[in-house]
Prior knowledge:
- It is a single chain.
- The protein has helices spanning about 25-35, 40-65, 70-75, 80-100, 105-110, 110-120, 125-135, 140-165, 175-195, 195-205, 205-230, 235, 240-260, 270-280, 285-300, 300-325.
- By secondary structure, the chain is mostly helical.
- It has one domain: Up-down Bundle (Na+/H+ antiporter like fold).
- The protein is globular.
Amino acid sequence: xxxxxxxxxxxxxxxxxxxxxxxxxxxxxxxxxxxxxxxxxxxxxxxxxxxxxxxxxxxxxxxxxxxxxxxxxxxxxxxxxxxxxxxxxxxxxxxxxxxxxxxxxxxxxxxxxxxxxxxxxxxxxxxxxxxxxxxxxxxxxxxxxxxxxxxxxxxxxxxxxxxxxxxxxxxxxxxxxxxxxxxxxxxxxxxxxxxxxxxxxxxxxxxxxxxxxxxxxxxxxxxxxxxxxxxxxxxxxxxxxxxxxxxxxxxxxxxxxxxxxxxxxxxxxxxxxxxxxxxxxxxxxxxxxxxxxxxxxxxxxxxxxxxxxxxxxxxxxxxxxxxxxxxxxxxxxxxxxxxxxxxxxxxxx
Length: 349
């Protein structure tokens, strides 16, 4: 059985629908343009690199300090739903990426092809999964737990999957392992260690801290694309490649949504609210985690690697906005997944 709904879950969600065009994505695009026109070079590049490394460490420290172990453990009681979401994130997505990878270099070029495969290895999101699940009147506690667990698993699974799946693109040698430890794992562990003392204060100032999160990632993006500009990214990236990449991202998202609807979402133990959480948490990929991880794993090649992640982020916002808006109407019949958003009602049990 699913967890009991959160207080007020039977009322229309008051959370505002995320904007169709994410303003933060516009800021990221501005950083990309800035790096293309005025990349950091020489001494400035060294200083920017140091600042970006510190920003990555700060990001993961704050992630750890805000993560409540009690909330995660409580959400894990509905383990079947969490397992289904994790399977979509870390099994279904990578399998689809491997399936389409042989044709990607011809469609989008080798570097963007690697980026698509890296996209498939990333954890799910937290904020947008919760927002869309709330709007669609789904199981919000499950979405909170799914995003939290996915981010935690991604700390270990994404680098390991990247080293396994991407082969020569990622060499987890001593230098990379040290970077993973000092910039991601150790700061996260330090944040967890002080969670009981500073976690509540960070939760109260979540909105203000979001500016630190986003500002840090903007710095990481500028640094990554400065390196990529120096390595000739813009000479090899064409409009045809970008359009093909957008189509690949859209097909990938649609395939995941349809697969969830026809397989995972049809499990009899899931009610309507669970299926909504599964659709939104299981189909997302985290831009916030993807940017710093790419910077650590790929170094100077990170700029090209994160282009598919940025486009997928916008695609998932547009598509899930439409789905969540439709499912938020009280008069709509209970729906079991993306396929049901067209015509197929199911029982609420």
